Every structure is written in C-alpha cells, then in structure tokens.
C-alpha cells in the first residue's frame, strides 16, 4: 500500500496514493478523468494533492493541493459494477452534489480507505 508514516502532530491523518475521478459535479455528470493523487484524510476534509517531482511520502517531495472535498453530510460506499470496470472502487458523494470514484489495485489499501472514510463521514455527519 503506497503510503508513508504519519507525520508528527497529526495523529488523525490518513494518507496514501489513490486513483480518483469525478463523475458528477454540481449534480451534473462529467467525463471521467482517472488521475493518481496523494490523498490525505484530515478530519472531515479529503485533500487531493499532485506530487511535484520525485521522491515519496512526506519528505522528499513537494505537494501541490489540487482540490479538496468536505465530507460533512456526505456518504461513501462500494461503487456498483456499472460505475466502473475497475476493481476496488469506492463511490463518494458530497453534500455539494459531487460524486467521486476512488480506486486502488491494492485491496488492503482500499479496504483501509473504506473504513477511514466511513468513520470520517459518520463522525462528522451532524456537524
Ligand atoms: O464509464 P465509462 O465512460 O466507460 O468510463 C471510461 C472512460 O471514461 C474512458 O475514457 P474515454 O473518455 O476516453 O472513453 C476511461 O479511459 C476509462 O478508464 C473509463 O472507465 P473505467 O471503467 O476505467 O472507470
């Protein structure tokens, strides 16, 4: 699972590499564009970063925030087969009408993300 040790002072963070595409934005279907992101779950925010240059993990590479989503009031579940031909795909829906697919070829990795995202959505549901 491509991830790195948690940085100090951020015990609640989860991070790792995930493939992601938006499928709906503001309630409208958009064309898929699968891209690999360094993904960080921090509280109720899910951040998608594109790495700049080489290296891996927190040290040795610069991160550029591409965009983030707010998980409050959102939902996460395994995507149905008609959403993608890929294996291990999660579907994330936000309260703002965005739908994303998240994917990893590593099933342990995606199971960990499923757990962490479900927990984050449940924890922050009523804020
Ligand atoms: O759900 P779709 O439209 O079959 O998704 C596939 C397409 O987006 C395809 O790109 P084109 O826009 O060039 O047709 C992507 O390359 C595929 O990865 C998409 O399907 P999967 O099943 O990989 O999510």
TrEMBL record:
Residues 22-122 form the PH domain. This is Rho GTPase activating protein 12a.
């Amino acid at each position: 699972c491509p991830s790195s040790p948690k940085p100090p002072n951020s015990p609640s963070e989860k991070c790792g590499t995930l493939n992601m595409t938006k499928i709906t934005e503001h309630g409208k279907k958009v064309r898929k564009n699968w891209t690999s992101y360094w993904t960080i779950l921090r509280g109720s925010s899910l951040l998608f970063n594109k790495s700049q240059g080489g290296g891996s993990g927190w040290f040795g590479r610069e991160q550029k925030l591409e965009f983030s989503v707010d998980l409050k009031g959102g939902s996460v579940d395994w995507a149905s087969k008609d959403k993608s031909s890929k294996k291990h795909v999660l579907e994330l829906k936000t309260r703002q009408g965005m739908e994303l697919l998240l994917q990893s070829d590593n099933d342990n990795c995606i199971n960990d993300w499923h757990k962490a995202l479900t927990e984050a959505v449940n924890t922050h549901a009523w804020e």
